Structures are given as structure tokens and as C-alpha cells.
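Re: the 214-residue chain
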Amino acid sequence: MRSYLKQAPVTATVIAFCALTWAATAIQSHSLTASYYGSSLAYDWTLWGPDFEAAPLTALSAGFMHIDLGHLAVNMFLLLLVGREIEQALGGALYACVYLLSLLGASAAMLGMDYQTPTVGASGAIYALLALLVGLYNSRGMDLRAPIVLVVANVAYTFLMSGVSLWGHLGGLFTGVILAFFVFNSRRGVRWTGVFTVFLALSFFLGLQAGFWG
């Protein structure tokens, strides 16, 4: 674990923070199996279209909240699996920005396409990382079959399973595809310009949803 902290401190921090938020909901709800229900923190951090104007920060906070221990465990396992490789390739600062933008992209898709459905979970950002993993392998001239199979399997899961955030997953995946065009460029200026452009686009859309622009 100490080695992982050194190799991927941002990923480790995200995992720790998600675990802490789950623990807080478990304490509030007095339940390990249904921690989301009965927790005011869980409610306050949930992304839900009708409440978004009053709580715009849920575009980020929802990505650190999980329904139960199983939901948390699955997402954190995938983040552990994929996050370190992406973080080592991009560096901590760029990776942190990419991760947060991925959360915003997933939230934007939910607000635009599934406004009435409340959602929580890190999976939107994780789907973005899956797309970025394909981009990373491509930039290094590596065999793309393994990351593509991983993406296809997860997308299939999204469509086949009920109770899954379809638009959150697809929004995260699409955000990852867009970011991959920029962040694996050899020129630092292109990488950061791309990230800033995506940030502006998402901020404008989310600002519209929150009523910031009238």
C-alpha cells in the first residue's frame, strides 16, 4: 500500500476519500448494508436535476458518494486497477484535473439526458479512465485488444444491468475520449489547452443547468 501511495497518490487519495464518505453514511444511517438510506450526507451529495440549481456542487460530490459497500468496492477496485497506470503516465496534477473533469462530464450527461434520475458513484469517472487507457496504449504503440475488451465489457454491463447510470457511464466515457485526444500529446501546451477547453465547455453547460447564466 505504501508503494501504491508513492506511485499513484491522487488515485489513493480518491479511494480513501470515497471510503471515508461511505463510512460517514454508514455511521449516520446505522447500517453497513444500506448506508445510503437514512444518511443526510448521502442525500446532500446526490446529483439530482430538480435540485441542481440549489446544489451545483453535487456535479462533483456525487462522484465520491456510493449507495452501499458493494457499490463502493466494485468502483474502487476498477479505479485501483486503471487509475495508477493513467496517473503515472500523466503525472499527478494533470491526472487530478482529468479525473475531476471526468466527474463533471458524467454529471453533465446525466443532467442533459436523464434529468429526473438521482445518481451517485465514481463510475462515470472510471469509464473516462477506461477510454483514456485505450488512448494511453495507442500513444505507446501497444496492443489495444486488452483495454478495448475492458471498455466493451463495461459498456455491455451498462446496457444489460438494471439500476445502472447509463448516461453517467456514457457521459464519462465520451469525456475520456475527448480528453484522450489532448492529454497524450507530446506538447505540454496542447495537453493543458485541451484540458482547459473541456473545462470551459463543461462549466458553461453546467452553469446553464444551475441557472448561472440566466
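The chain has a mean pLDDT of 96.
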